[in-house]
Amino acid sequence: ETHGITFRIQVSVKELLDTDVLLKLLFHLPVNYPSTLPDISVNSDQLTRAQCMDVKDKLLEQAKKHLSEPMVHDLILWIQQHLKYVIKQSATVCNEKPTLSKGTSTEDGIWMLLLHLDHMRAKAKYVKTVEKWTSDLGLTGRLMFMGKIILILLQGDRSNIKEYLILQKTSKVDVDSSGKKCKEKMISVLFETKVQSQHKRFQMFEVKEYSTLDELQKEFETAGLATLFSEFVPPLLK
């Protein structure tokens, strides 16, 4: 294994802000863990993006205290016990209300990513997995099939798009020629940028198949992505 492992844990913390808070934690453990700190991402529908970032920072601070020893279980116990205090500290720094949260930060905003996949051998399972990941991470966009071309266009919070890429590259999402589960090794990031005013925001994630290149081009043009299409998609046919 060259990428380490990635897993998600959902933690419910009770009696905080008069409601239960569900934390969605993603840990990516590199191959030399625990000598190297894990990558941690935090999401919660009950907290603002700024509060989630504060929780992540505190977890990384605690992780440094456990360097060179298994730490994930200890980190989960710690945040269950201390989340209330982390949120209180966050509130003194930022008065943003949870009801105003859009799951984004002013620094990152909404981003867009275009991926190219070489093939899908276990198509039904692969598609179902992609749909689950995008749903869990609150991403919208398209999984597009046109002949042998397979594209994934994603929009959402930049940190969630990064989490998606980790999952895409480190999970056994397909099968090899012998039918054995394998990781996606033939994926290309064609384009990544902050969503601009001329770009249409997708309201959901959909899987779509196109009969012709013209149909696929119209999908991009409708989304305000004509330039993106002409620069990156036709070369895939060569």
Automatic annotation (TrEMBL):
Any one GO CC term of the record? nucleus
Q: Which residues form the RWD domain?
A: 1-86
Q: Which top-level group of life is the source organism from?
A: Eukaryota
Where it mainly occurs, coarsely classed, is cytoplasm
| GO biological process, any | positive regulation of hypoxia-inducible factor-1alpha signaling pathway
Originating gene: Rwdd3
Where is the protein found, in the record's own terms? Cytoplasm; Nucleus
Q: Cite the entry's keywords alphabetically.
A: Cytoplasm, Nucleus
Species whose genome carries this gene: Pluvianellus socialis
UniProt protein name: RWD domain-containing protein 3
